[in-house]
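URGENT: need a sanity check before tomorrow's submission.

F., can you look over the DUF4407 domain-containing protein record below? I want to be sure the sequence and structure line up before it goes out.
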Amino acid sequence: MSQAALQSRRLKDHIASLETMTRFVLATLALGSGVYTYLGVRSLLDGSATVVFFAAVIYSVSVSVAMYGFWTYLIRFLPEMRDAASRLALVGIMAVGSLMIVAMSSWLNAAALAGSAAVEQHLAITLEDYTADLDQAHGNALGALSLLPDIQRASERFARLAQDEQNSGALTGTSGSGSVVQLLSQMSAQMKELEATIEGSRETIQTGFQQGQKHLAAMRGLVSAPGAIAERSDRFAAEAVALSGVIASLEQTSIAPSVSRAAADLSVGFIAPVADGSSADLAGRQDAVMATIRGSVEAQSKALSDAAAEILAQPKVAERRYVPLTSAEAVLRYASDFIPSWAGAISIDLLPAVLVGIMVVVHGAMRRGEDRMEEADRITAGDMLRSLDLHETMLARRHAAIAEEPIAEPHPASPEQRPAAENVTPLTLSERKRIDP
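Structure tokens as predicted:
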């Protein structure tokens, strides 16, 4: 027997011996995919426990049966295709079927494998967003506090000028309490009132920030806490709603708008007292000093207004709403972070494609070996035995047919007309007598 015939014979024997194993592998992969599909689809269904259970079981069984049948058909038919057109057609069908399997099963398998981790990642990312929002709201609320040093310096400067004018007449040249001292004291008092307003908002802002920190701590604990992810997600949503309220409250607590209005009032609402000097010269000097004070107040008002406008121009905290995700939705949104889980989920569904490829290669090698075989090598012992049995059966039927045919009596004929028997030696009369008794 030639080497090609021996190889073809061995490959055929191996294929026959591995048929049961092939069916077992396909059934096991289909069953495994069905189990993980059941776990994944169960997280998507709502309703009573009985309805969810039966619906998930029916879907997973349908997926398992469909996968087993699909790969069984391909592993039987694709290796037998000899022409390129038929083989390409089945390869295209296999590609379409693989996409359908990924759509109906693989993503659910991935949800079963990494769904909880994906939901936890969604909670962690949402927590980071809320932390940034709280810090931004806190910073916006504290923005007005940055104006305190300027306000305190202006208040102290007006108070010091009033004291100097009263003690030594530093501005008008005449000491004593007059209209200039009164105006300076008035401006110093307005600055102190604005300072007290800003200082009063500090405690409110700090209280709101501490409440937000407590909600963030609770949310952080829910992200890493053990237990069912669905229950933790619900509690996380409740904490997120409460934190959103705190952030909105901090946004409204900002004193910057009030500072802006107060700064504008310093200039617009400036009221200078009438000069009360005892002489025209003193009264003129008082008017000149009050005009200077008016210019200083306008400059201070503009500086505070510009600073408050910068604070108000800071971006506001965008309104955020926490959206809970199921495990299947989370594993789709964060698919790039769970590539190993996706690879395992897809592999368990598409691994039979490797078996189909192996069978195609083996059948191709077997056919190439058969093409190089002699006619005698193509006949097996079983074929010879079956041929002998068929030959004996045909002979038996022929003999039976001959036996059933009637025998016709021969007509007398002259010795000259009788044909001589082949291989028969004619005897003479004397020889006949010696033979006959």
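My own read: The chain has a mean pLDDT of 79. The radius of gyration is 52 Å. If you see anything odd, call me.
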